[in-house]
Amino acid sequence: MNSYQVVAYPKDFSSFINVEVSYDCSAISSYEINSKSVIDKDIINRILVDQVLESDMLDYTMYEFTHMLKVDFKSGVTDNTAISTIDAFKLFDIEVVSLHYSKIYFFNTSLSKDDILEKAMQVLFNPLVHDYQILTKIELLEVGIRERIELTHNQLGKVSVIDLDISDNLLHELNTKRCLALSLKELKVIRDYYIENESKRKKIGLPSFPTDVELECIAQTWSEHCKHKIFNARINFTNRKEDKTEVIDSIFSSFIKKATKEIKEENKLDWLISVFHDNAGIIRFDEKLDICFKVETHNSPSALDPYGGALTGILGVNRDILGCGLGAKPIANTNVFCLGAPGLFNRLSPDKVPRSLISPENILAGVHKGVEDGGNKSGIPTINGAMSFHDSYCGKPLIFVGSVGVMPQRIGNRDSSIKEISAGDLIYVGGGRVGKDGIHGATFSSIDLNDSSPLNAVQIGNPIIQKRLSDFLLEARDLGLIKAITDNGAGGMSSSIGEMAQLSNGADLFLDKAALKYSGLDPWEILISESQERMSFAIEKENSTKFEELALRRGVEVSHVGEFTNSGSFKIFYHDECVGHIDLDFLHEGVPKMELSAIWDEAYVDYNPFNRRKDLLSSSDSLENILKRVMSHGDIASKERWIRKYDHEVGGNSALRPLESIDNTSVNHCGIISLERLGGRAGNGLGLGVGMAQRVGKYDPYLMAQLSVDEAVRNIICHGVNPMKIALLDNFCWPNPVDDSNDLDRQRKMGALVLASKGLYDISKIYSTPLISGKDSMKNDYFGKSRDGSDLSISVLPTLLVSSIGQIELDNITDSHIPREGLDIFVIGSQKGGLLGSILEELYQIDSSLPHCDPVENRRTFQVVHQLITEGILSHCGDISQGGLLCALSEQLFLSRSGIDIEPELSLEELFNESAGRFLISVEPKHRDKLNGIINDDSLLYLGRSNKSFKIQCNQQYLDLTNIYKSWSEGVLLFNKELQYGN
Question: Boundaries of each PurM-like N-terminal domain copy (predicted)?
Fold first, then answer.
């Protein structure tokens, strides 16, 4: 049934028809057509066909246009506007059979249909999730708008048996066809398992080889996305630079998990509650609450559908928080986008533009809108984030989304961080319904992106449904109705119930009991579908009635789909027939360990086909022009118009927002949430920061990891966070490092991963900052074609995002901007270090060295800075990171429109290096003696006193901060234009 943005009004149930036109394509005219009609309640089930879209309601002949484009969601794709409209009708006891939302665009142009579609695609619609119809004006008047095609299915799905006793070539074909993302070795292990258990299976009436339900369940469970096989592999590592060879049995165990274990023991930390175990890390930075923190990636889905990929990413990580322990309340979101530079495709010759990739600017518009909708419509503030631009990210963008939650330390007599399930407990799934969207999401995210990637891996989430589910879940938790809970994320019920079954040692799941969006799904599709807004619950039988009644009152659909057992098996049924029976030990422990090779020889090759020529840096270049160019770089320039679309203060608990003021905006280095109104101690808060140094990675991955940690830690320390109460999350996003054929390039990528993990371990130990959770995404490569048919491969820069969370007394919150003139300004920390891997070095040809990082020295600096803050000596404190000292100084002078005459002569390296451990501080002149009494070594550099000039005098040159501010605020004008997204 076709309709256009139908909105119900309380008094007369009239409808409002809004045909939206908003895209300017070669002087396209825009029209907004409004119409009302009275809806007869007695024929409400017919109105959407018979009344709302009667053709005579819209007289097309009265408008000047040449073409019409109609866009609506494909059948089965989540249609949030339609769902909300149907819910609105329900408020007035009006039952709507079905509804969907469409947009019509009118074009007045000389362009052809194909030209219009080329310009509109990815801006007005995405063919992966949208159907479209384009007509000329004559065709529209003669043919009319096409009725939407609904999905048609057989009533019952089918189960197939998969013969694995086939050749290696046929196994490979099977793997590709079904998007299993398994290696040949893994497929043979599965085959051997079924051969060994043939007689056992026959006794219970199952075929010798796996059903498609079983094979898909195993593939999901064994996917790189879920099992982190690369991080747990046995690695033969040769460091040719140091002439050293070693065997590493699991990067995760040897470096990440080990660091946290040793930090906890050496520092006698009592605030690590649950790490690397649950859906999120759990820490205790408050006397009354426990804190949960998780950061996820949604790279592959966002490459295909930016809006849907990012939306499901942020909603998914919120569900990670909801599914942590017995259920935590999400209280703050964070996000980081790594994207290709906007305008990249416009700068290429047309025949060299990637054939199937979405342009970077439309990726940006889509992922931003997705994260915005996910947070704002869920009532969760977005308080921190970042954007980074490099052309290597145009193949697969890196979309990091994070969430913080709180939960009471106890629910009744239970520790809220501990899940418990007993045989006999009932399995419920609540929230959204199951559809074809999101099938193979886990396995799809475990492979390289290419032109034939599965389209049904794309999903669109519904934040309104999830908010309702969230409120219901937390109420059920507080009533003591929940024994255990987890989210239906990657792999759907296969993952959630398959994992929960380990707590009782078994589960019986009945797929036909699950709520479906439409009939006809095959059983394996029901099992692994990642359709959104769903959580899985373990409920005691005696509480099942209360649980169902609460769900009904709160408008949440729950389905009783099975029972936990102690059988040692995951049994799957469909209409009373057993279609799957897998031993839990094999399902979760049977995946064979990877054996990988890694080398490091300082010969890492950055495979980026869009590398740009760097400019020569001459003595005639003024310092102001150099600074303007650095400040206009996408990583540094203002993102204000994007940031302000997020709601930073919903809930009323934000103590520090991302931006200060609306004139001469200043950027804060972190976000801070107050815990008091959330049930925590008065005056207590949390600071959230991030750090990345991916440009250093190709030179020194070890140093790259250390710089990433250092920036994340300084982000929050400079605002007042206690350096002894900081925890970290690591998110590795790497190009494929798996060596399939003695590929030295992939071995170098693996070597870079080993060195980065070592760097992470070493600096975390020195800083006493335990790693509490993390995620890795190891296949961030694109293989496809340019428009001229030539092969195209793009691999991301090896990227490590480090996220920090720390405890802060809210009275200690410190400004990151220099507040006025008349203050003495200093740099704390070493000025050593070169320009390799810096923004300046990306823009200019420079012969230099690596940035400097001395973790032991930096830790002492952190303690000193915290002492200066707690004693009230500092007027401001900001960190120095991307762009270096001169960029940081400029940004921190913007808000007060102050200036400074820098007294010492500083080299280009000192002005622009991005070395670790440094802060800019300002103090009242009367506090200089106190400052010198605390810092009496060469780690303190006096720059000068702030003045009213709004200029920086440096090395006998005057830099006009009015011009610098303009470059910073308008330097990324290309992607600050009003971009739209078709959803």
Answer: 278-407, 699-778
- Which residue is catalytic, options 67, 298, 648, 876? 298
Cα–Cα nearest to 458, from 313, 298, 305, 307: 305
Distance of CA 680 to the CA centre of its chain: 28
Half-sphere exposure of 709 (CA within 13 A, CB side): 33
The yes-or-no answer on residue 298 being catalytic is yes
Secondary structure class of 926 (helix, strand, coil): helix
- Under the banding of pLDDT at 50, 70 and 90, the label for residue 983 is very low
* Measured distance CA(245)–CA(252) in Å, rounded: 19
Q: Could you say which DSSP state residue 125 is in?
A: B
Question: Nearest to residue 893, comparing CAs of 977, 816, 975?
Answer: 816
> What CA–CA distances, in Å, run from 497 to 221, 543, 571?
11, 19, 11
Residue 311 gets which letter from DSSP? H
CA distance 377 to 374: 6
Q: In the chain, count H helices and then E strands.
A: 32, 43
Count CB-CB contacts under 10 A for residue 595: 11
Q: Report d(CA 147, CA 956) in Å as an integer.
A: 72
Contact 290, 301 (CB under 8 A): no
Residues 363-381, buried b or exposed e (16+ Cβ, 10 A)? bbbbbbbbbbbbbbbbebb
| Distances from the Cα of 415 to the Cα of 50, 288, 290, 483, 848, angstroms | 57, 13, 11, 11, 55
The beta-strand segments (E) located in 501-603 are 507-510, 534-539, 558-564, 569-574, 577-583, 595-600
Burial of residue 32 (CB within 10 Å: 0-12, 13-18, 19+) is exposed
Give, in order, the Cα–Cα distances in Å from 281 to each of 59, 573, 711. Answer: 58, 34, 21
The whole-number pLDDT of residue 120 equals 78
90: pLDDT strictly greater than 90: no
Look at the chain and count its residues: 983
Question: Please, is 110 exposed, middle or buried when counting C-beta atoms within 10 Å of its C-beta (0-12, 13-18, 19+)?
Answer: exposed
Q: Which sequence spans correspond to the domains of the chain?
A: 15-143
Alpha helix (H) ranges present in 91-209?
A: 113-120, 137-143, 168-177, 184-196, 198-203
Q: At what angle do helices 701-717 and 744-767 cross, to 10 degrees?
A: 40
Residues 959/624, Cβ–Cβ less than 8 Å:
yes
pLDDT greater than 90 at residue 109: no
The 10s digit of each residue's pLDDT in 185-226 is 999 999 999 999 999 999 888 999 999 999 999 999 998 878
558-564 and 595-600 beta bridge pairing: unpaired
Q: How far is CA 22 from the centre of its chain?
A: 29
Instruction: Give the DSSP H or E segment for 220.
Output: helix 212-221
Binding-site residues, in ranges, read: 294, 296, 319-320, 459, 487, 530-532, 730, 774, 777
Which residue ranges make up the annotated binding site for ATP?
Answer: 294, 730, 774
Active site (annotated) includes residue 225: yes
The answer to whether 75 and 50 are in contact (CB under 8 A) is no
| Catalytic residue (one of 67, 225, 817, 866) | 225
Query: Which residue, 548, 593, 570, 680, is CA-closest to 236?
Result: 593
Superfamily of domain 15-143: Phosphoribosylformylglycinamidine synthase subunit PurS (3.30.1280.10)
The answer to whether 864 and 919 have CB atoms below 8 angstroms apart is: no
pLDDT in tens, 595-634: 999 999 977 666 677 877 788 888 778 999 999 999 999 9
Q: Are 729 and 579 in contact (CB under 8 A)?
A: no
Coil, strand or helix at 255? helix
**Which class for 602: exposed (0-12), middle (13-18), buried (19 or more C-beta within 10 A)?**
exposed
Residues flagged as binding site for substrate: 319, 459, 530-532, 777
DSSP state of 38: P
